[in-house]
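ARCHIVE CARD
CATEGORY: sequence design from structure
SOURCE FIELD: tokenized fold
FIELD CONTENT:
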């Protein structure tokens, strides 16, 4: 028996609209997508869902409020330790203030990360924070 030892990786991209997915597939057919010089294989996922209305939502969330709660360290603690939200951070902008801080958090994805954080903060900290979606700089 011969074992082929080829390093592989997998990823999944989720688009809000079918037209955005079609555009990506078209661009990939014209200029194949590469990652660090490696060619990729791109295919449609077998599971399809209905398009979800965006309604101003994005992977970027602005959190404003009580400085004891609204700071990167406390929010990270809440997301990971208290609420078990696993996430990637694309960018984070922290603006401290005397009576109120603001954190603009660019999560790696919308549904599993930004939306999960938004919902948990809305449920558990609505009295001390204001949460709103901001436009995604990549859209």
């Amino acid at each position: 028996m011969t074992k082929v030892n080829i390093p592989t990786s997998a990823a999944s991209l989720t688009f809000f609209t079918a037209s955005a997915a079609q555009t990506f597939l078209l661009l990939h057919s014209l200029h194949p997508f590469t990652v660090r010089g490696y060619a990729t294989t791109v295919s449609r996922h077998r599971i399809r869902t209905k398009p979800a209305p965006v309604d101003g939502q994005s992977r970027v969330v602005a959190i404003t409020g009580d400085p004891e709660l609204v700071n990167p360290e406390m929010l990270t603690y809440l997301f990971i330790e208290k609420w078990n939200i696993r996430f990637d951070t694309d960018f984070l902008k922290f603006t401290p203030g005397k009576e109120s801080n603001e954190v603009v958090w660019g999560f790696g994805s919308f549904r599993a990360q930004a939306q999960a954080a938004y919902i948990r903060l809305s449920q558990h900290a609505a009295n001390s924070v204001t949460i709103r979606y901001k436009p995604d700089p990549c859209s």
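CARD ANNOTATION: The first helix runs from residue 18 to 30. Strands lie at 34-35, 38-39, 60-65, 89-95, 101-107, 129-134.
SHELF: design records, drawer C
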